[in-house]
């Protein structure tokens, strides 16, 4: 079903491109299995949507079949932890609806998985998921709890957060039916034979030692988790090797870029600033061949240090492609719905990947053996 | 952690003191260097841990050293600032710290003797209040800047501000007629930073695992081994028994009188043994926070059988009992946030449960 829809989109995109003036045409080199593109709507839950999509692809890879798993189940379990953590740190940690891929893996370890059918979470007619009010309320509740200084215990705080969650996203069921069998969430992850501990996060920066893990300095890493540090070449080689071997890759990085266009479904790092471009050049950014910044380990580090590259989105890499000029792209599944010319996929240039990827999550087996040995995993 | 000491009252030296009309006698006293004074600086973490390492050097027969506390203050601040900047203001940027700051910075940057860097300039006592505030003021606008527009002037601003208040850090120095760098000096000491671990005891995480202790001054986000309270106490007893001192992190804030209590720290209800639940409750409602680090160097007991931990403070030798405090066992059970010990003092069965080899 999803496959057909995807191809239709691709075909219509190609047809459209025939009568359009210059246009990027993408030829897929690797396209791994993935489930239909979802829409996080008005909620800061990309971390849950992308990681869930990644888990769904892993289930397809391991032959478990196609599943539509609940993203809100992870939001339900992680939010109270974030609030508690915020108060315990006396506010010295980011209290955010956002998160990181390991948040989902930890929730799976502790609470398992549940189908979307069993727990969709509340949506509203206008926006679909709409968490702005909920996020504000939870933030307020945690801040109040902190200001009281002598709080009446974390159980009370969690109870309040749960009440807010029940109002805005609803409570997940204790058990649910799947193919006429009853499961609870932990039994279901067992049934899926999914091992959250097999997934690790990799990054590549020179301000820490290579082949060691360090606490990635991004505010969305609110739980202060470890990321394994690889040299530039090995980091990107790992991503390529994983895709070649049939493993999808979970992407964590920066999309607040002028070279990122959801409408065109493209992500580029143009060499020229928008303000230095003529109107025509500006218009053609995603249409004609665009000259991009040449990525190097130095530029990568520099943009991290200046916060030009920082975490603000999590997406899911499902393949590679090239355009008519033989330029390489990564096919990235987003969670902003299927509008846009590419049906919700983003064609991310190689340069964009190298400069704007903060970290990735992969299955251990996707990492080349020699690199895995160096990481001592 | 950020306890300040203001020079005030003078106390008389006495080996035995009286608590609740009971006589306290020191049962065991391990070697320690002279009592220092952090004065008007929030650097107890450095003073306590350096004192602990100086005792380790004495235990190992390396002789008596006076290591520089301020060397680590210089090394810690830029990393704290880096974190603060990259977490976009969502981490703690201040003068406080934890015991692992020293062991980690020792491993990374080495060590210096006090004679090479006291950070005092021509002053008799440390006074870093103005510097701490200046550093916070440097960073405050930096973390609010639009990402991408930030430059790295703050790194130089931090350094020059610290130079101004504490003097520039030497890259080379001589000690006992020999030339050293901080790295070569640290190597000459023969201490292995990896030998030291931090332990805590709280039930909001599973026991016998490690977790990132949620206290603001754990700005390095380091992990602490989690033990039941009874076993944490066993580690401490065993440590003193075996002749190893302990670096202590805990709370001295609730008793207004801690600074002036005659060097004896007890809890209100000494009769009831502090339970795991008492510990958790006090931690959860912030009655017990990590506001001070000290150095436990021995054991004492009163005639009524109460055990006390002999504790070296960094408030000069005029406070407490010549700079030492007696913390009752119950006080320690309740007020200890964490300890740092040499791995070797952890009893075998506990080590096995924690998964610490060797």
Q: What descriptive keywords fit this protein?
A:
heterodimer; A: 377 residues; alpha+beta; Cathepsin B, Chain A; eleven-stranded mixed beta sheet; two-stranded antiparallel ribbon; 12 helices; 13 strands; 38% helix; globular; disordered N terminus; B: 358 residues; two-stranded antiparallel sheet; 33% helix
Task: Describe the overall structure.
The complex is a heterodimer of chains A (377) and B (358). Chain A is of the alpha+beta class and 377 residues long. Chain A has a single domain, classed as Cysteine proteinases (Cathepsin B, Chain A, Alpha-Beta Complex), CATH 3.90.70.10. Helix content of chain A is 38%, strand content 16%. Chain A has twelve helices and 13 strands. In chain A, the strands form two sheets. In chain A, strands 1, 4, 5, 6, 7, 8, 9, 10, 11, 12 and 13 form an eleven-stranded mixed sheet that branches. Chain B has 358 residues and is α+β, with helices and mostly antiparallel strands. Chain B has a single domain, classed as Cathepsin B, Chain A. In chain B, the strands form two sheets. In chain B, strands 1, 2, 5, 6, 7, 8, 9, 10, 11, 12 and 13 form an eleven-stranded mixed sheet that branches. The longest helix of chain B is centred in the N-terminal third of the chain and has 17 residues, at 70-86. The two termini of chain B are 31 Å apart. The A-B interface holds A 85, 88-90, 92-94, 149-154, 207, 215, 217-219, 222-224, 305-308, 310 and B 82-83, 85-92, 147-148, 150-152, 204, 212, 214-216, 219, 221, 281, 284-287.
């Amino acid at each position: 079903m999803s496959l057909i829809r995807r191809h239709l989109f691709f075909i219509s995109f190609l047809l459209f491109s025939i009568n359009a003036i210059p246009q990027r045409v993408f030829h897929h080199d690797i396209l791994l299995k993935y489930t239909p593109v979802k829409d996080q709507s008005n909620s800061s839950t990309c971390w849950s949507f992308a990681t869930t999509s990644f888990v769904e692809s892993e289930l397809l890879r391991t032959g478990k079949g196609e599943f539509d798993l609940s993203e809100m189940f992870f939001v339900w379990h992680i939010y109270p932890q974030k609030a508690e953590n915020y108060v315990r740190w006396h506010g010295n940690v980011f209290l955010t609806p956002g998160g990181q891929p390991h948040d989902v893996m930890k929730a799976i370890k502790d609470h398992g998985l549940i189908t979307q059918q069993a727990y969709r979470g509340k949506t509203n007619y206008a926006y679909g998921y709409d968490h702005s009010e909920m996020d504000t309320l939870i933030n307020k509740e945690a801040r109040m709890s902190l200001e009281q200084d002598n709080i009446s215990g974390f159980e009370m705080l969690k109870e309040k957060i749960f009440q807010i969650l029940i109002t805005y996203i609803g409570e997940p069921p204790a058990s649910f039916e799947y193919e006429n069998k009853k499961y609870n969430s932990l039994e279901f992850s067992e049934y899926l034979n999914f091992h959250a501990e097999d997934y690790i996060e990799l990054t590549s920066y020179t301000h820490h030692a290579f082949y060691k893990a360090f606490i990635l300095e991004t505010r969305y890493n609110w739980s202060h988790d470890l990321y394994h540090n690889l040299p530039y070449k090995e980091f990107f080689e790992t991503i390529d090797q994983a895709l070649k071997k049939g493993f999808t890759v979970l992407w964590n990085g920066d999309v607040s870029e002028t070279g990122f266009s959801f409408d065109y479904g493209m992500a580029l790092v143009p060499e020229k600033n928008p303000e230095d471009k003529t109107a025509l050049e500006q218009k053609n950014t995603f249409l004609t061949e665009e000259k991009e910044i040449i990525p190097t380990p130095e530029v990568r580090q520099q943009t991290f240090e200046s916060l030009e590259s920082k975490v603000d989105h999590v997406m899911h890499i499902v393949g590679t492609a090239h355009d008519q000029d033989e330029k390489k792209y990564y096919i990235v599944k987003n969670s902003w719905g299927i509008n846009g010319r590419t049906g919700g996929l983003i064609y991310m240039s190689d340069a964009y990947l190298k400069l704007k990827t903060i970290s990735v999550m992969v299955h251990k087996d996707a990492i080349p053996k020699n690199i895995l040995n160096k990481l001592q995993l | 952690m950020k306890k300040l000491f203001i020079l005030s009252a003078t106390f008389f030296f006495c080996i035995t003191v009286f608590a609740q009309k009971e006589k306290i006698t020191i049962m065991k006293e391990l070697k320690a260097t002279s009592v220092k004074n952090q004065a008007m600086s929030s650097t107890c973490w450095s003073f306590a841990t350096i004192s602990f390492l100086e005792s380790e050097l004495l235990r190992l027969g390396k002789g008596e050293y006076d290591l520089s506390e301020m060397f680590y203050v210089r090394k810690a601040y830029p990393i704290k600032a880096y974190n603060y900047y990259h977490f976009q203001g969502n981490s703690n940027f201040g003068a406080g710290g934890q015991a692992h700051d020293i062991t980690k910075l020792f491993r990374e940057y080495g060590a210096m003797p006090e004679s090479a860097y006291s950070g005092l300039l021509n002053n008799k006592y440390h006074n870093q209040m103005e510097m701490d505030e200046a550093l916070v003021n440097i960073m405050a606008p930096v973390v609010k800047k639009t990402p991408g527009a930030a430059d790295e002037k703050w790194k130089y601003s931090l350094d020059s501000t610290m130079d101004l208040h504490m003097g520039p850090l030497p890259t080379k120095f001589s000690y006992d007629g020999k030339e050293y760098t901080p790295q070569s000096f640290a190597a000459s000491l023969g201490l292995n930073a990896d030998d030291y671990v931090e332990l805590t005891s709280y039930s909001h995480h599973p026991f016998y695992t490690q977790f990132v202790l949620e206290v603001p001054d754990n700005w390095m986000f380091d992990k602490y081994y989690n033990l039941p309270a009874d076993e944490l106490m066993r580690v401490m007893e065993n440590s003193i028994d075996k002749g190893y001192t302990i670096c202590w992190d805990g709370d001295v804030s609730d008793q207004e009188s801690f600074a002036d209590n005659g060097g004896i720290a007890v809890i209100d209800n000494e009769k009831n043994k502090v339970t795991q639940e008492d510990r958790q409750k006090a931690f959860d409602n912030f009655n017990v926070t990590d506001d001070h680090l000290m150095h436990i160097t021995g054991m004492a007991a009163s005639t009524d059988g109460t055990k006390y931990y002999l504790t070296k403070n960094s408030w000069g030798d005029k406070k407490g009992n010549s700079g030492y405090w007696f913390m009752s066992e119950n006080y320690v059970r309740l007020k200890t946030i964490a300890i740092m010990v040499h791995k070797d003092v952890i009893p075998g069965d506990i080590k096995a449960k924690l998964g610490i080899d060797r």
